[in-house]
């Protein structure tokens, strides 16, 4: 009995698939205190814990788990927050299975400790206990930092810098802070009240949040550094330019980029239309194209908007899908139909400018390509049509040039992303740091947070000496 | 929150707001637009920056009450507030001394044409303007347009004011007789811009149009406003809104503008009914 308990983690209870596809509420319910203690007790408290090395923001995982074991939940939350300003977010959306949890020794013979679930538990517990405490105010340095973009990278960088005593302003182009956490990730995976809570915490630390500020248009980076008196800038704008498939019919009504579909649904709350003013087409038969987390999010949103049928059309096989296994599992459970080894070749017009079907080719896997995954090749004569009224390419994003075009002395790489040192976020322009998707291309929330953390560290150093040595 | 410091009813359907937005006013240029969102439930809609006053720290916009949001907007008064104002967005109009320029404004499109005509005039051009609308009470800013134009032609479809014609008739005459015209600018309903372009193409005169497709973020993030220009996908919000009209696929633009017709009708009707009830209740 004891052994079995050690082997398997405490499952988080969740809404049944039948129930949850009818609503936008969060899928898992979270641990109860008893469940959390029980799960934490599985931790072997290794002498040389490996889990920590898997965390891009270096959370002291063994210590916070030990505190949970002892029933000190608030203290555990503080322990996490020493390194991570967004624990409730990370506990929900981090790919722990390839990070901290992949290094847990228990994983060798059974399931690793559910570190993500525990992180989520302590963050939610602290919030439910009322007043969230903030650390003591640091000594004021008199330095000013501007952070462009209030997504996970910007929020993390802001939190770290404010703790060092600098004056920090976080600029957001949209009307709500949070970046991808509010426009991209759907409510049922990350409730927006949680993002608001984390943003409130950062404001409480003293960060000034300015929404509706499109940097590059309203102010340029040079104006921030010179006229506005900022000593340094951190660019964390993400890679927000949607990619389309480049096939005929892509401009028909009913074809959305995943960015648009999700922004309408999540940020603008189109699922509450007409209470909220922004509409979105509620397709009866919806196809999403791609194989990443965003593809799955999009498919699951379409389902919750009342689609009878949602197809996920991906040109490779399930094995090659970049999405998290847990998300793929959720999508299957909810009845999303996977059409694998299938590639869209054109959208069909109903004669009135609306999409009525998508034409696809069957694919087979050939030799590995530059990504190491086997390249899908069309099978001759395999074309067929699928009837749909909404089609959503979710095949990734590129670098958005809006801001970058206004900073001519900022070096970009071949793909249009900012050239920045991986360890420091330093760019070719003195005082300007960058990190997250605008440097790496589309990645994850936690990697952006890691970049924000590294940048905060090097900005801190820079503000002491104002020395600039960019080596690339 | 952004305060409405001045409201003026330009006609039954067209309203002017001067909005306090100091930083946007500092950066605004002719041809820019902005996005507003009235309140928490509101949608984001692009509106034209018809004028700006850097000293007063204000931008001026002109809108026609068409859908729910613009009707709701029209009920706000001086001293009222708009939750979100974002801008300046889009590339500014390309202004230089081209010689003789014709500026065509149709309906509410007269508003965005005004700052462009003004800028062309200041850049040394001879500016001939044509403004038109369905009927007399939809024409506004005739005096303002006259002040920045060397010549002004007013048309109405029903002949209730100015010349009884659509804007393309005098445009065709001008282009036929005045070979010194080097550029046409047209802003108005898509159908008007389409026919302006058909007209000017006959005379091979370069024509710039400002496209008003449906937008959400206005920063190139969503692709809602995508259109085809010369066979390529462009985003009106960041690549435009100004484009070479002879290359624009107007039929696609018009089809995409109709995407939410059902939802728009439904929302408007629902709003007007609830508004009537509220008013009746008082």
> Architecture of the largest domain in chain B in CATH?
3-Layer(aba) Sandwich
Order of strands, main sheet of chain A, comes to: 3-2-1-4-15
Strand pairing plus helix content of chain B: what structural class?
A: alpha/beta
Q: In whole angstroms, how far apart are the ends of chain B?
A: 27 Å
Strand content of chain A: 15-25%
Largest interface: A-B, 39 and 42 residues
Query: How would you sum up the global shape of chain A?
Result: globular
Which structural category do the helix and sheet elements of chain A fall into?
A: alpha/beta
Mean pLDDT of chain A: 93
Q: Beta-sheet strand percentage of chain B?
A: 25-35%
Structural features, described:
The complex is a heterodimer of chains A (472) and B (282). With 472 residues, chain A is α/β, with parallel strands linked by helices. Chain A contains 17 helices and 15 strands. In chain A, strands 3-2-1-4-15 form a five-stranded parallel sheet. In chain A, β7, α14 (325-333) and β8 form a beta-alpha-beta unit. In chain A, α3 crosses α4 and α3 packs antiparallel against α7 (115-128). Chain A is globular. Chain A starts with a helix and ends in a 7-residue tail after the last helix. With 282 residues, chain B is an alpha/beta fold. Chain B folds into two domains: 2-89, Translation factors (Elongation Factor Tu (Ef-tu), domain 3, Beta Barrel), CATH 2.40.30; 100-257, Rossmann fold, CATH 3.40.50. In chain B, 32% of the residues lie in helices and 31% in strands. Chain B has nine helices and 17 strands. The longest helix of chain B has 21 residues, at 261-281. The two termini of chain B are 27 Å apart. Chain A binds chain B through residues 173-175, 183, 211-212, 214, 217-219, 240-242, 244, 250-254, 256-257, 259-260, 263-264, 268-269, 273-279, 281, 353, 400-402, and chain B through 23-24, 27, 37, 41-44, 68-69, 83-89, 216-224, 226-228, 233, 238, 252, 255-256, 258-260, 263-264, 266-267, 270.
């Amino acid at each position: 009995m004891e052994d079995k308990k050690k082997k398997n983690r405490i499952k988080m209870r969740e809404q049944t698939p039948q129930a949850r596809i009818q609503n936008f509420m969060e899928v898992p319910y979270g641990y109860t205190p008893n469940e959390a203690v029980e799960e934490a007790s599985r931790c072997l408290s290794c002498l040389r814990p490996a889990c920590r090395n898997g965390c891009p923001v270096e959370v002291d995982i063994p210590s916070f788990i030990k505190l949970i074991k002892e029933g000190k939940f608030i203290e555990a939350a503080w322990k996490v927050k020493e390194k991570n300003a967004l624990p409730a977010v990370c506990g929900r959306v981090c790919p722990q299975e390839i990070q901290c949890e992949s290094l847990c020794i228990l994983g060798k013979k059974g399931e690793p400790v559910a570190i993500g679930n525990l992180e989520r538990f302590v963050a939610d517990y602290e919030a439910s206990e009322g007043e969230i405490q903030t650390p003591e105010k640091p000594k004021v340095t008199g330095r000013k930092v501007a952070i462009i973009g209030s997504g996970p990278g910007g929020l993390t960088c802001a939190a770290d810098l404010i703790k060092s005593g600098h004056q920090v302003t976080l600029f957001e182009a949209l009307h709500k802070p949070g970046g991808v956490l509010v426009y991209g990730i759907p409510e049922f995976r990350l409730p927006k009240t949680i993002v608001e809570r984390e943003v409130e915490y950062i404001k409480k630390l003293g960060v000034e949040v300015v929404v509706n500020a499109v940097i590059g248009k309203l102010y340029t980076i040079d104006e921030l550094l010179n006229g506005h008196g900022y000593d340094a800038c951190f660019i964390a704008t993400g890679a927000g330019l949607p990619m389309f498939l480049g096939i005929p019919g892509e401009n028909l009504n009913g074809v959305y980029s995943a960015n648009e579909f999700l922004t309408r649904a999540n940020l603008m709350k189109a699922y509450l239309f007409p209470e909220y003013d922004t509409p979105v087409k509620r397709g009866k038969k919806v196809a999403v194209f791609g194989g990443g987390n965003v593809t799955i999010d999009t498919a699951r949103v379409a389902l919750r908007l009342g689609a009878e049928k949602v197809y996920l059309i991906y040109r490779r096989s399930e094995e090659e899908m970049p999405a998290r296994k847990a998300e793929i599992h959720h999508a299957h459970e909810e009845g999303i139909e996977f059409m694998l080894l299938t590639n869209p070749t054109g959208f069909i017009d109903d004669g009135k400018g609306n999409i009525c079907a998508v034409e696809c080719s069957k694919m087979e896997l050939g030799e590995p390509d530059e990504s190491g995954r086997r390249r899908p090749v069309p099978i001759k004569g395999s074309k067929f049509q699928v009837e749909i009224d909404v089609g959503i390419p979710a095949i990734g994003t590129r670098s958005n040039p809006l801001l970058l075009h206004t900073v001519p002395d900022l070096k970009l790489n071949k793909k249009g992303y900012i050239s920045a040192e991986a360890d420091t976020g330093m760019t070719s322009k003195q005082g300007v740091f960058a990190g997250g998707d605008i440097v790496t291309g589309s990645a994850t929330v936690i990697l952006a947070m890691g970049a924000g953390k590294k940048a905060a560290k090097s900005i801190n150093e820079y503000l002491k000496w104002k020395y600039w040595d960019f080596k690339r | 929150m952004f305060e409405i410091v001045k409201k003026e009813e330009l006609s039954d359907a067209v309203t002017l707001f001067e909005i306090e937005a100091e930083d946007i006013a500092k950066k605004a240029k002719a041809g820019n637009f902005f996005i507003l969102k009235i309140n928490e439930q509101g949608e984001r809609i692009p509106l034209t920056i018809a004028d700006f006053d850097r000293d007063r720290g204000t931008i001026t916009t002109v809108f026609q009450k068409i859908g729910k949001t613009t009707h709701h907007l029209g009920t706000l008064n001086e001293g009222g507030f708009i939750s979100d104002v974002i801008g300046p967005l889009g590339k500014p109009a390309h202004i230089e001394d081209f010689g003789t320029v014709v500026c065509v404004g149709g309906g509410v499109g007269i508003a965005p044409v005004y700052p462009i005509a003004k800028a062309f005039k200041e850049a040394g051009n001879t500016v001939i303007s044509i403004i038109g609308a369905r009927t007399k009470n939809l024409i506004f800013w005739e005096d303002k347009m006259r002040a920045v134009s060397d010549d002004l032609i007013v048309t109405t479809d029903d002949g209730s004011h100015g010349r009884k014609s659509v804007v393309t008739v005098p445009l065709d005459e001008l282009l036929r007789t005045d070979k010194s015209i080097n550029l046409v600018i047209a802003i108005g309903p898509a159908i008007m811009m389409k026919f302006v372009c058909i007209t000017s193409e006959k005379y091979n005169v370069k024509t710039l149009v400002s496209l008003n497709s449906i937008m959400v973020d206005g920063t190139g993030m969503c692709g809602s406003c995508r259109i085809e220009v010369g066979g390529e996908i462009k985003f009106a919000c960041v690549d435009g809104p100004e484009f070479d009209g002879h290359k624009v696929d107007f039929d696609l633009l018009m089809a995409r503008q109709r995407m939410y017709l059902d939802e728009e009708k439904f929302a408007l009707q629902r709003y007007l009914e609830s508004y009537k009830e509220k008013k009746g209740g008082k």
